[in-house]
């Protein structure tokens, strides 16, 4: 297939709609984080036990990333995308019919398992377009993914306040079914050569991780950034609902719009994937996040600082994610689903770790603990980069070369 025909298959309208679908699908994973109190009250479940639902959804999603997303290298991604969207819609609705909390946890697990279509859409588009446009277009799709994390929390709170948690699920299910019908008629065919065995695809994951240095590096960068990102966002509600702010949940939810603005402001980063030293842009993105946490630690009691940090932190996080996946999609076209699967598993494991760290560290050490934990995580990513790129050895080699040159000059003199 020639380049012109490839690009023609994905119109600007279709790419925009795919970005919106990515946002809505990812939002599935975050609606119930802000609706958890309402859900637990409905089923008379103590707050200490209600977190099982969020854990089940996250575990389901991680398993889906590991075992369902690689199916895109075996079967048509178009069919997988539509099927996963329909399954997500049905399961969202079934959660509203559950008669017990344990049943909603089980259905939530399968809902998370099926909500992987965004991670099928991105490799589908990237492997069916010309390489010169890949970084920019993938960046636009990733904007949808990143906004879904924030929109899920914002819309879950707003719609949930008006129509209850069941209303949120029903509304999301209807929207997804409408998009599934649209994609059935609008998505082009998947023209990438497929593998012959799913078993071989799964068995190829560890060797692929071992082989691709870029993949390993982006997993570390992504996991560290999403870990720090979740440390901030989970603790933000504690900070704003406590002294000196004492805000209600509605005001806390509005901060999600600042995060959205920050994510949109970082939309330029997709173009940077075509630069020669793209990993240095990754380091800059992590540096933006690192500095944000330092400022948070020094000025968290001032509202203007919290507003500034919410915006800038999302710029750095969104920039890092776009660069990571742009780099991944420059690797083998035939392995895109598997590469994306491995990256996203690492990414969300980092995010899950951040959620756990945030709750424990904030209640034990306050904002200073949040600052120290986040900066440490980001520094570990820097250390990994320095070690794997032999920065320390290079410096020693340069010193040795200089010493030898000096000795030789002395001898000649």
From TrEMBL:
Principal location: membrane
Membrane-spanning parts: 12-31, 51-68, 80-98, 104-125, 137-156, 168-187, 219-240, 246-268, 280-297, 303-321, 342-363, 369-387
One Pfam entry name: MFS_1
Subcellular location(s) per record: Cell membrane
Membrane disposition: Multi-pass membrane protein
Keywords per UniProt: Membrane, Transmembrane, Transmembrane helix, Transport
Keyword Transport: yes
PANTHER family: MAJOR FACILITATOR SUPERFAMILY (MFS) PROFILE DOMAIN-CONTAINING PROTEIN, TRANSPORTER SCO4007-RELATED
Official protein name in the record: Major facilitator superfamily MFS_1
């Amino acid at each position: 297939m020639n380049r012109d025909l490839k690009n023609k298959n994905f119109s600007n309208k279709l790419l925009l709609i795919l970005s919106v679908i990515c946002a809505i699908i990812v939002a599935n994973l975050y609606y119930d984080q802000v609706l958890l109190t309402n859900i637990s009250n409905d089923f008379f479940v103590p707050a200490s036990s209600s977190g099982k639902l969020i854990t089940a959804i996250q575990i389901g999603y991680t398993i889906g990333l590991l075992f369902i997303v690689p199916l895109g290298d075996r079967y048509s991604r178009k069919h997988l995308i539509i099927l996963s969207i329909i399954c997500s819609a049905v399961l969202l609705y079934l959660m509203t019919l559950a008669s017990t909390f344990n049943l909603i946890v089980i259905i939530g697990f399968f809902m998370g398992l099926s909500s992987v279509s965004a991670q099928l859409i991105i490799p589908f588009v990237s492997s069916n377009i010309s390489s010169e446009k890949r970084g920019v277009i993938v960046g636009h799709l990733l904007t949808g993914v990143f906004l879904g994390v924030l929109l899920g929390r914002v819309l879950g709170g707003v719609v949930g306040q008006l129509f209850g948690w069941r209303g949120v699920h029903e509304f999301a299910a209807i929207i997804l079914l409408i998009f599934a019908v649209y994609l059935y008629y609008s998505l082009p065919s998947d023209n990438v050569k497929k593998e012959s065995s799913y078993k071989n695809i799964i068995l190829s994951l560890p060797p692929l991780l071992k082989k691709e240095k870029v993949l390993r590096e982006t997993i570390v960068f992504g996991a560290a950034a999403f870990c720090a990102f979740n440390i901030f966002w989970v603790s933000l509600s504690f900070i704003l609902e406590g002294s000196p702010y004492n805000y209600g949940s509605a005001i806390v939810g509005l901060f999600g719009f600042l995060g959205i603005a920050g994510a949109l402001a970082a939309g330029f980063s997709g173009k940077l994937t075509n630069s020669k030293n793209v990993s240095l842009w990754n380091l800059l993105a992590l540096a933006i996040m690192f500095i944000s946490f330092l400022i948070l630690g020094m000025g968290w009691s001032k509202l203007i600082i919290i507003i500034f940090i919410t915006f800038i932190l999302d710029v750095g996080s969104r920039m890092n994610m776009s660069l990571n996946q742009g780099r991944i999609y420059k690797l083998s076209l035939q392995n895109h689903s598997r590469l994306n699967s491995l990256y996203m598993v690492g990414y969300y494991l980092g995010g899950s770790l951040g959620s756990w760290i945030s709750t424990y560290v904030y209640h034990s050490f306050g904002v200073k603990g949040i600052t120290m934990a986040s900066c440490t995580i980001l520094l570990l990513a820097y250390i990994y980069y320095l070690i794997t790129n032999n920065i320390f050895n290079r410096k020693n080699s340069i010193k040795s070369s200089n010493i030898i040159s000096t000795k030789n000059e002395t001898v000649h003199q």
